[in-house]
Amino acid sequence: MKLDPFYLIVDSAAWIERLVPLGVRLVQLRIKTVDEAGLRAEIRQAKALCAEHQCQLIVNDHWRLAIEEGCDFIHLGQEDLQTANLLAIRAAGVRLGLSTHDHVELETAMFAEPNYVALGPIYPTILKKMTWAPQGVERIDEWKRRVAPVPLVAIGGLNPDRLDGVFAAGADSAAVVTDITLNVDPEARTREWIEKTDQWR
Ligand SMILES: Cc1ncc(COP(=O)(O)OP(=O)(O)O)c(N)n1
Ligand SMILES: Cc1nc(C(=O)O)sc1CCOP(=O)(O)O
Ligand SMILES: [Mg+2]
């Protein structure tokens, strides 16, 4: 399975409506604060928008709602994995991306036979408090050797200037939140990411 090299992560369908039509091919809906009815509405709208624009939608955390809403790709962290029903996820034909931050987590992740493995944070991130020190790009090379042929996603503190190093080290896709959502011009920055990642597409 080939992942698009530009992996956008946003926290609302409104962001998807704004940025996906620019040519984004891979987007994660990562919502932490909305109630179940609100979440369902967001997932439904995101799914419709992504279908309209030939973009792969990945739903973070909320695997039950994702299945109920007919989504086909989810992302789970290690804590999510402890309570998720992997058999139900697989029976629904839903693909699975998993977070990893250290060797134990990687072993746990590989046992679940994921469709991609994410490694982070590569650089310091301002999005959320992390207990792991930045991995550095060298860790990408090691992870690539351990996970291949499963695709590897790099995440954490990424921006266009850091992409050459991330892809040279072996990442298949680069995930990003704040470099785009906190940018003064998110649309222009999204276009910059699309153009910059074209060489790995
Ligand atoms: C592509 C990608 N990689 C890592 C994460 C982080 O997942 P998780 O550890 O479950 O943390 P939250 O994002 O749920 O706070 C991700 N979402 N996407
Ligand atoms: C959501 C998330 N997960 C991470 C991990 O290492 O698992 S780093 C991260 C935040 C990514 O945001 P930004 O691109 O703004 O740094
Ligand atoms: Mg999670």
UniProtKB/TrEMBL annotation:
It catalyses: 2-(2-carboxy-4-methylthiazol-5-yl)ethyl phosphate + 4-amino-2-methyl-5-(diphosphooxymethyl)pyrimidine + 2 H(+) = thiamine phosphate + CO2 + diphosphate; 4-methyl-5-(2-phosphooxyethyl)-thiazole + 4-amino-2-methyl-5-(diphosphooxymethyl)pyrimidine + H(+) = thiamine phosphate + diphosphate; 2-[(2R,5Z)-2-carboxy-4-methylthiazol-5(2H)-ylidene]ethyl phosphate + 4-amino-2-methyl-5-(diphosphooxymethyl)pyrimidine + 2 H(+) = thiamine phosphate + CO2 + diphosphate. GO terms for biological process: thiamine biosynthetic process; thiamine diphosphate biosynthetic process. The keyword Magnesium applies. Its cofactor is Mg(2+). Keywords: Magnesium, Metal-binding, Thiamine biosynthesis, Transferase. Residues 12-180 form the Thiamine phosphate synthase/TenI domain. Pathway: Cofactor biosynthesis; thiamine diphosphate biosynthesis; thiamine phosphate from 4-amino-2-methyl-5-diphosphomethylpyrimidine and 4-methyl-5-(2-phosphoethyl)-thiazole: step 1/1. One of its GO terms (molecular function) is metal ion binding. GO terms for cellular component: cytoplasm. The keyword Metal-binding applies. InterPro entries: Aldolase_TIM, ThiamineP_synth_sf, ThiamineP_synth_TenI, TMP_synthase. Its EC number is 2.5.1.3. It holds the Pfam family TMP-TENI. Belongs to the thiamine-phosphate synthase family. This is Thiamine-phosphate synthase.
